[in-house]
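Service request form, structural biology core

Requester: graduate student, group of Dr. S.
Request type: structure prediction, single chain
Budget code: on file
Notes: please return the result as C-alpha cells.

Sequence provided:
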Amino acid sequence: MKVLTTPISEEDVRNLQVGDQVLISGSIYCGRDAVLPKICELIDSGEIENTDIHLRGSVIFHTAVSPAGVGPTSSNKLEIEGSFETLSKAGVKVHLGKGEIGKATIQMLDEQNAVYAVMPPVTALLGNNTMEQRLVAFPELGMEALYELKVKDYPAIIAAAHNESIY
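Core staff response, request fulfilled:
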C-alpha cells in the first residue's frame, strides 16, 4: 500500500505503477460533469488565479457531495474525461473516479506526469474517512458544485499511469 498526501509531488507520481493500491490523505477537490468544464474555463481564461482553487499537486475526485455522502461517478463522461488535459496541465496529479478512460487520455496523463485512479462505490466507507467538507465554487450547482474535502486514507487503485492501463 502506498500513501499519498496532498499536495502530491512529481516524484510521487513517477513512482506509481498501474495496479498500485494507494491511500490518499489531505485536501482533495470534488467535481463532476457540471462543474469541471467551468473550472477548465477559469484555467483557460487565467481567472483561476483570482480564486481559492489551488490545483498544483491536487486530486480531483469525480463525485458530487450530497447529504448521502460521496461516491465515484463514471470518469469517461465527455465533460469529465474532456477536462483531464486542462486540469493536468494546471497541476492536478490524480484524477479519481471509476470506469475505463480512453487511450488518448492515458497517453496525455503520461505526458503530464499525472495518473488516473479508480475506486469502487464505497459511500459508507468514505463517509468515515471524510474529516471536513467546504464549498469552494459555483454554489448554484448544488451538490455538483466544486467542494474541497479533508480526507484520511481514501482507498484507490492506480488504473492508468505511464501510458499503461488496467483496462
